């Protein structure tokens, strides 16, 4: 009986391939170049955000989103200090979400 091959063509965590080898599961894989990494990381965001939402905000899915964000920052060459600086600038300019404000409606601004 032939085994079904599933095509994923997506970015996976670093230890997935070792697990497949350990389990004796046939697979193919390759290391992404920079252009492909950018594409695959961008594709990973909606996947992980959807899983986070579907889980009602579980810590496991939060961590997955965080890891994708960290991989993106590394790809872009952003240091933790640079990210914190940009975060603080945004907070200073527009605030955060600590006040729990919900905008119910607003007059439409004319062009």
- N-C termini distance: 66 Å
Major sheet: size, sense and barrel closure?
A: none
Q: Pairing-aware structural class of the strands and helices?
A: mainly alpha
Total beta strands: 0
The fraction of residues in strands falls at under 5%
Secondary structure tally, helices: 4
Low-confidence stretches: none
- Level of helix content? 40-55%
Envelope shape = elongated
Mean pLDDT figure:
96
Rg on CA atoms, Å? 20 Å
Following the backbone from N to C, one meets helices and strands in this order, namely HHHH
Topology:
Elements lengths: L15 H7 L11 H21 L4 H18 L3 H15 L17
Describe this structure in words.
This protein has 4 helices and no strands. The chain is mainly alpha-helical and 111 residues long. It has a domain at 32-94. Helix 2 runs antiparallel to helix 3 (59-76). The longest helix is centred in the middle third of the chain and has 21 residues, at 34-54. It is elongated, with a radius of gyration of 20 Å. The mean pLDDT is 96.
């Amino acid at each position: 009986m032939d085994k079904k091959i599933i095509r994923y063509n997506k970015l996976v965590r670093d230890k997935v391939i070792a697990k497949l080898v350990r389990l004796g599961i046939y697979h193919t894989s390759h290391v992404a170049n920079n252009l492909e990494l950018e594409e695959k990381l961008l594709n990973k965001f909606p996947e992980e955000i959807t899983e986070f939402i579907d889980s009602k905000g579980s810590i496991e899915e939060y961590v997955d989103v965080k890891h994708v964000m960290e991989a993106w920052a590394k790809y872009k060459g952003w240091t933790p200090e640079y990210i914190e600086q940009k975060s603080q600038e945004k907070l200073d300019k527009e605030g955060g979400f600590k006040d729990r404000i919900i905008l119910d409606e607003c007059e439409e601004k004319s062009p």
